[in-house]
Amino acid sequence: MPRRRSSSKTLRRTVIGLLVAGVIAFAQWKGWMPKDQPKSSGRNPGQTQSGSRPSPTPPSGKWQQLNGCTLADDRSNDGDSFDVMHQGARYTIRLYFADSPEKYRSHLNATRLAEQGRYFGGLSEAETVKAGEAARDFTLPRLGRTPFTLLTRWEKVFGGPRVYAFVTVADGDLAELLVREGLARIFTKGADRPGGGSIRDQKEKLYALERAAKKARRGAWGKR
Length: 224
Prior knowledge:
The protein is an alpha+beta fold. Helices cover 38% and strands 18% of the residues.
């Protein structure tokens, strides 16, 4: 009897989990919920590798440009998300528009890895992780080389410590550079850019860059 009860509880949990996942997927498809999900970093939520926590962010809504930003070392930094320092404050940033493959596999990101692999033409899990490592190795040196600029309105990502931002490095817009090199898919949340550049216009540019990367078999597009 105890074993039968345990099996019944396990079945109920599985069914509930599938129902919740279905509701979340439908809400994301309808645009009611951001497609980004909390990333597994192997640390407590909001805690950096050094043990410090990101600084409180201003209320979401007002655009602000932060010049002279520098990269902050953290083990969770990757192609599209990273910690930055600005005037003594530390923030965790997530790029608008661009979603780089995960740089490692965990039980929390297996589904996302599979989705990313399918996007790039049916990559295996190992190939997708390699592409994520390549995205990390592309992004972090560019952020660490010289100070860079953030443009953000402090919009939270899925309720966690990360905030969306446009990031401009010496080579140009970081999201565009990642897509151009085949190291990010055009998937995550976008925003109208202050001073010009609607979401539609920016996506058209990104898709043109993606088509060129795909044709040239750059980055993840060349792994098949």
